[in-house]
Amino acid sequence: MTEADQAVSLQPLPWQASNWQRLSGCIESDRMPHAVLLTGTAGVGKARFARALAAALLCEAKDGQGVACGTCKGCRMLQAGTHPDFTLIQPEEPGKAIRIDTIREFTARGALTSQSGGYKAIILEPADALNTAAANSLLKTLEEPVERTVMILVTSRPGRLPATIRSRCQRYDFPPPEAAGARAWLQQQGIGDPSQAELLLSLAAGAPLRALDYARNGTLEERDDMIRETQAILAGKEDPVVVAQRWSQLDQGQVIQWFSGWLIDIIRLKIASQAAAIINIDQRERLQVLAREVNSKRVYALLDRLIEANRTLGAQLNTQMQLESLLLDWADLGVE
After folding, report:
1. DSSP state of 172
2. Would you state the pLDDT for residue 274?
3. Strand 120-124 to strand 149-155: parallel, antiparallel, or no bridges (unpaired)?
4. How far apart are CA 223 and CA 244, in angstroms?
5. What is the largest CA-CA distance in the chain?
6. How far apart are CA 296 and CA 281, in angstroms?
């Protein structure tokens, strides 16, 4: 990470100003809650906000807006990954659970007490990855907070956290910014084509960081391949089992999101046709064709299955088998 990148990461994003003002005020008045829960759709910058907040808690010379200076001893140690009063708790692998051993190891070594005499900052991300035993272990810590120790829980799925944990945190919601502000920010990041920015934000449910990620990582090309395969399956030109095998190698959260989005658009187009406001605005013609070819009741039933698949994401032991079942149902959605 360059010095410029480090400086940017200490700053909250423009649409986070309200939450930043509230929490930086808590730091300034020394009334920081012992646990905060940052929630909102993926891609709105909750993780970045959490890191900026942790930096502000540990900084020795914050600016007038409560933003970490980036140059004091505390900031330098944080950027080097050596600050004794900062801990980041994440799954060992993306998509896996945070296990009880991780929480026990953290609490057993006295990590809840500041070594510098200031704040102690702990980020749990994503907090919904805590398994049941780990959540229960964390609950005991939340029930007996340590002075000037702040736990920052980050999640896009607060409903997956036990109510007992949610109730012991001060919650801050992060909705997507207004469309104009999101487009302006994307333009600053190099997305100069307004139509491309509109498409990216539509696909990302208005979340600017997710939209930017789509633009940079080849996700849109992968999506185009998938929707072509989906159309080919319905036409009998692709084998659902073969396609499921390929899709099983992809990010399953993304696969479920794309597939669900197409079904939602198909339902909207069956109801309103040309007037429908759809998610996949660049695929209207293809989706209109599909809308004419599928049975409405079966589309709703398949969408219900995809919603359930999304709810249990990460718990599915045989991803390919699940995808085979979904795509075989899709192949049988023809109008009768």
Report:
1. E
2. 74
3. parallel
4. 14
5. 72
6. 21
**CA dihedral sign, ordered 52, 53, 56, 62:** positive
Q: DSSP alpha helices (H): ranges in the chain?
A: 3-9, 17-28, 46-58, 73-80, 100-108, 132-143, 163-166, 179-188, 194-203, 208-216, 219-234, 240-247, 252-272, 284-293, 296-311, 319-331
Instruction: Lowest mean pLDDT of 16-20, 105-109, 287-291, name the range.
Output: 105-109
Question: Over the stretch 56-83, which tens digit does the pLDDT of each residue have?
Answer: 999 999 999 999 999 999 999 999 999 9
What sign for the dihedral angle of Cα 244, 249, 253, 255? negative
Residue-wise pLDDT for 174-203, tens only, equals 999 999 999 999 999 999 899 999 999 999
* Residue 123 CA to its chain's centroid (Å): 15
32 φ/ψ sector (left φ>0, alpha ψ -120 to 50, else beta): beta
Find out whether 230 and 314 touch, Cβ atoms under 8 Å. Answer: no
- Alpha-carbon gap, residue 289 to 334, rounded angstroms: 12
Report pTM. 0.86
Q: What percent of the chain has pLDDT over 90?
A: 77
DSSP string, 115-147: SSSS-EEEEETTGGGB-HHHHHHHHHHHHSPPT
* Residue 163: pLDDT over 60: yes
| pLDDT score recorded for residue 95 | 75
Whose tokens are 């920052």? That residue is: 152
Residue whose tokens read 């909207």: 268
Q: Which of 273, 266, 267, 270 is nearest to 227 (CA)?
A: 266
pLDDT higher than threshold 50 for residue 30:
yes
Q: For residue 2, is pLDDT > 50?
A: no
Nearest CA-CA partner of 123 in 68, 169, 162, 77: 169
